[in-house]
Every structure is written in structure tokens, then in C-alpha cells.
Amino acid sequence: MTIQWFPGHMTRARRQIQDKLKLIDIVIELLDARVPISSRNPMIDEILRDKPRLIVLNKSDLADSRTTEQWIAAFAEEGHACLAVDSSTGTRVNEIPVRARAILHAMIERQIAKGINPRAVRGLIVGIPNVGKSTLINRLAGRNIAATGDRPGVTKGQQWIKAGTELELLDTPGILWPKFEDQLVGYRLAMTGAIREQVLNVEDIAFFAVKVLVKRYWATVAERFGIDQPPKDMEDADEIIRVMEDIGRKRGCLVSGGRVDLEKTSGIILREMRAGKLGRISLEAPEDR
Ligand code: G4P
């Protein structure tokens, strides 16, 4: 993530979104399907208030589909319509206009009752940096138009982008900040590659990754790295480090004296996880909330 979010940026980002809300009928809140908690803005409910909303879980191609289904059900329980897509290939992206219209059904019916010809539904995509806003806009538009700029201060004239005949989008998405107060959020976003590694210590990121991986996907981890001793206690940091060392030994990451090079091991774990070598991984499930 390249944005430095200072209080002034957050206030400006918030105001920009609130100004845009006046122009649109529905917000498309984009989350990363692998980390729906950590990729969510902490003030989203306050910012959007009662604006109709469709939650879209993006990058669902990288997440574990069973957990994604659980998320969809959990959001539905809270009264939010939710859909999982893959913007990189366009899978299920064409359901977004249909779902948006369904949410706004009552408004559309009222227009018809008044004899007004219903216009295309107007939407705004919002989300934290790197969640896939520009990729989704381009997909929905069927061409490359969205500015990939991720500076919260960027202003330019508003333009509507047609996503088929039923939905129009504001061309600049609303950029929101993640929840910084929670350190774990930073590490989870770093695991997905949304925060650049230089900002956080690679061994710490890998530690948190292994902690989640062994808990949720031990069989996959064991098979991929050829290890067979699960941690005796999932909450014991020494045991997590021991698993990392087992992986390092298997991968030949040794320094003098036969000690494991944890930094090198951490790099391997994160690279393979992000490259999908461990399969589809969800780092957060609804019960983690
Ligand atoms: P943003 O506007 O919200 O900041 O995000 P952006 O669209 O720039 O997407 C961030 C990264 O996420 C891009 O990868 C993009 O290709 C990738 N991405 C977006 N949607 C999906 C998805 O549904 N599935 C997968 N697997 N990836 C997705 P990048 O590494 O920055 O660039 P590149 O690898 O595409 O060159």
C-alpha cells in the first residue's frame, strides 16, 4: 500500500466519499475475500449511513470457497447483500448490475409508478488500496478506463462509466483506509501483499501467516513443505517458530552451525502462499470477528 494515511488524508477521503454519495444510488463495497475483516474500513457504516450497499468479495479466486460462502451467509445475516467475484478474469462480475438493481427494486418501482422512465442505477465502488477497485471498474466497463492512481487527494471532474445498460459507475472509486489500530490487520494485509513487505518485518509477517495456516490448513502446509509435526499448542509462539524452522530445514535454509535462516524461510513461505502454491487460502473466517 503506497498511501501514507494521516488524519488529514482520512478526513479528506471521507469527505470525498460523502460528496460522491449524493450523486449515486448504491455503494459497491469491495473487500478482499481472503481477509474481509482486515480489508474493511473501520468507519464504513458511519460513512455510508443508510445508503443502499452491495458487498462484493473480490479476489475470490484466491480464497477458499467454503469460507467465502460462510462470509456471504454472515453478511446476509447482518442484512447486507453480498456477492463473490474474481475481477481479474471477470467471473460473476456481470451479476453486480443485476444485484444492484435488485437492491434498488423499491426505488425503481416508485419511479415507474410516477411515470418516470427508470434510468440506469448509479453506483460508486469503494474500498481500501489494492483490493481491486480499478480492475473491477475496468471489467464492468469492458475496457481500460479507470485511473489506477491511489492518492486520496486526487480530484477531477466526475464522469460516469457505463457498465452495461443497467448500471453506471463514477469513474473514480472511493479510496478508504484500513483499520490501523489493530496490528494484526497490518500483518494480514501484508500476507495478501496489499501492504509492501518493507513496511513490516518479513519474519513477523510470516509468523502470523504460519499461525493462521497451521490452524486452518495444516494438511496442506504439511504436504507442501514435507513436515509432519503440527504445533502442540496453536497459540504457543515457540511452537509456531518451531514449525517455521521445520519448513526452513526442509527447504535447506540453513546458516552456519546448522541454524535455520528464518528470514529466508519467511520469504519462501510468503512467496509460495501469495503465488497460490498452498491452494486457495482464506485468512479470516466469520467466527474470527
Ligand atoms: P485498487 O484499484 O483497489 O488499488 O486495486 P487494483 O485494481 O490496482 O488491483 C490490485 C492488484 O490486485 C492488481 O495486481 C490486480 O491485478 C489484482 N486483482 C484485482 N482483482 C483481482 C482478483 O479478483 N483476483 C486476483 N487474483 N487478483 C486481482 P498487481 O499485482 O498490482 O498487478 P498485476 O499483477 O495485475 O500486474
Automatic annotation (TrEMBL):
Top-level taxon in the UniProt lineage: Bacteria
Subcellular location: Cytoplasm
Name of the encoding gene: rbgA
Entry function: Required for a late step of 50S ribosomal subunit assembly. Has GTPase activity.
InterPro entries: G_CP_dom, GTP-bd, GTP-bd_ortho_bundle_sf, GTP-bd_ribosome_bgen, GTPase_MTG1, P-loop_NTPase
Keyword field: Cytoplasm, GTP-binding, Nucleotide-binding
PANTHER family: MITOCHONDRIAL RIBOSOME-ASSOCIATED GTPASE 1
Protein name: Ribosome biogenesis GTPase A
Record-annotated CP-type G domain positions: 14-178
Record SUPFAM superfamilies: P-loop containing nucleoside triphosphate hydrolases
Family: Belongs to the TRAFAC class YlqF/YawG GTPase family. MTG1 subfamily.
